[in-house]
Amino acid sequence: MNRKLLASYKFGLIGGVFCVAAFVVFKLLGMDPTKLSMLFGYFLIPFFLFIGIKFYRNQGNHGLLSFSDGMSVGFLIYSIIGLVSGLGIWIVLMLSPSLYAEIKMQKIEILNKNKDLIVEQVGLKSFETTSESLLNMTTLDIATNDFIWKIIPGLFFTIIISIILRRNFK
């Protein structure tokens, strides 16, 4: 198995499981699990990227790390976190239709509550399109959104962490 994958998969799996657990815990605490799990991911992803890339540098690559190695390992970590988190949230929502319905209803209520502001800023047509999209939203849409919002910050943090941890000589 590839050294980078061997050094990365455990950090990605653990990070993804933490994201799914946070989703469930936030729901149990009566909070919006979609927003808070995304926010939680912004703290969790850089932590697992840092320790995963550092682990690869120190244990898997004899103390050396090029920028491209850091980017590769980071990509694997945040991709696995995103996949595990997205799949886990999708499974939770499939097993709990009432949670899915509650999340969907909350999003529709927020949209309707802010209708005047939204119409003023982007127009009635955009508001109606967004409203229709929310009415047609599926569990897979929520899981895909979570996946995307793990990948985007993951790329950003990977660039920074790869530069910080880069070491081309011993």
TrEMBL record:
**Species name for this entry?**
Belliella baltica (strain DSM 15883 / CIP 108006 / LMG 21964 / BA134)
Q: Does the keyword Cytoplasm apply?
A: no
Q: Which residues cross the membrane?
A: 12-30, 36-55, 75-95, 147-165
InterPro entries according to UniProt: DUF4199
Against Pfam families, the record matches this protein to: DUF4199
Protein's UniProt keywords contain Lipoprotein:
no
Q: What protein name applies here?
A: DUF4199 domain-containing protein
**What keyword terms does UniProt attach to this protein?**
Membrane, Transmembrane, Transmembrane helix
Lineage of the source organism?
Answer: Bacteria, Pseudomonadati, Bacteroidota, Cytophagia, Cytophagales
